Amino acid sequence: MARYERSKAAVDVSTKRMTHPVLRGALALTLTLGGCAWDTPMSTVEPHSDYAHEILHVYGIITWVTIAIALLVGLGLAWVLTRFHERPGRTDLPAQTRGHTLLEMAWTIGPALVLLGIAIPTIEVIFRTQAAPPRDALEVTVRGHQWWWEFQYPALQIVTANELHVPVGRPVALTLDGPDVIHSFWVPQLGGKRDVVPGRLNRLTFTAETPGDYRGQCAEFCGTSHANMAMRVIAEPSDAFTRWVAAQKVQPPEPAAGPAADGKAIFARSACVGCHTIRGVSGGTLGPDLTTFGSRHTMAAGILPNTVDNVAAWIRNPAAMKPDAKMPALGLTHEQARAVATYLTGLK
Ligand code: CUA
Questions:
Q1: Strand ranges for 247-344 from DSSP E
Q2: Is the C-beta atom of 176 inside 6 A of ligand 1?
Q3: Distance from the alpha carbon of residue 228 to the mean position of ligand 1, in angstroms
Q4: What is the DSSP-derived secondary structure letter of residue 59?
Q5: Residue ID of nearest Cα to ligand 1 atom 1
């Protein structure tokens, strides 16, 4: 009894300290709506593949179920608050309920049913999206490196980095393989997250439905520049994809005399060749294949537009743009770095 009075007094004091309820409500609403945005490149509610539609389907069920639960609990709470609130002249505690068998059973079985209702469609979708890829699927091996993505097309004998081209309407079967630490391949508008684990082959199959440039991001903390490990999936109609494939197979032309030719000479005599492949020039495999580097829209794993200025700045000091980048600064002068950047961005 005395304890009840004391805690009641404490509640009164803390209520007075709070600001006006309308202000508090406005603050909560602002914070909540601040997290919403409709037209965002990493949105999971704008699906553009069969897989992403499956995920949205489960997400929809869970959202509506939880909204219904929130309404029920809210209404129940409102009823209890009005029915049993304190009345003038009444100082004793209302009758307490404990050990009520029916109630105990209800709030044990209720949540179990809710979980079951969510689990059944979730498991269905897991099985549907894990099915073996169809035979005509385009096979791509995805390798996660600190901190960039390598995409190998074994049947087409193409290797590229950070920008994955896929044809619209044809299933794409990714095999995820990782040479260093655990990464996670995630392109929200095309499918779910799938870990890239060294020593283990994971799979992910999806069919892009609409042409577009879809943003992705490594979704497993993999070191200092985890946040700088982005990627793009460029889904294009099959004729555009065929043209892209053909362009990737062509030997890059010899650069014309001038900065590009100087850049090639600097590249060929520098440590660059130990890490990067450019067909006909070098055969390194530690860093991205640069044979058709100039055909990519972005550089450094999707973090910057692929321009001569950005590439030159990167060559001068990679770690300044991407903390802990594995590529060392090679000690090239500003002019040398610009020449190499001119050469590389011309490779298309
Ligand atoms: Cu790779 Cu995070």
A1: 277-278, 282-283, 298-299, 304-305
A2: no
A3: 8
A4: H
A5: 183
**174-216, pLDDT tens digit by residue?**
999 988 899 999 999 998 899 999 999 999 999 999 999 999 9
The closest-lying atom of ligand 1 relative to the alpha carbon of residue 220 is 2
Q: Locate the ligand 1 atom nearest the alpha carbon of residue 147 and give its number.
A: 1
pTM of the predicted structure, to 2 decimals: 0.81
145 alpha carbon – ligand 1 mean position (Å): 8
- What are the pLDDT digits (tens) for 297-326? 999 998 899 999 999 999 999 999 999 999
Q: Six-digit token pair at 180?
A: 């260093």
Q: Is the pLDDT of residue 38 over 80?
A: no
238: buried, middle or exposed (CB in 10 Å: 19+, 13-18, 0-12)? exposed
Whether ligand 1 lies within 6 angstroms of the CB of 220 is answered as yes
Rounded to the nearest angstrom, the distance between the alpha carbon of 226 and the centre of ligand 1 is 4
147 preceded by a cis bond (ω within 30 of 0): yes
* CB of 226 sitting under 6 A from ligand 1: yes
Q: Which 3 state secondary structure label does DSSP give 291?
A: coil
Decide: 263 and 256 in contact? Cβ < 8 Å.
Answer: no
d(CA 125, CA 117): 13
How far apart are the C-alpha atoms of 167 and 311, rounded to whole Å?
29
Helix (H, G, I), strand (E, B) or coil at 214: strand
Cis-peptide into 186, omega within 30 deg? no
Instruction: Tally Cβ neighbours within 10 Å of residue 40.
Output: 13
- Output b/e per residue, 108-121; b: 16+ Cβ within 10 A: eeeeeeeeeeeeee
In degrees rounded to 5, what are phi and psi of residue 246?
-60, -40
| Residue type for position 17 | R
Is residue 53 in contact with ligand 1, taking CB distance under 6 Å? no
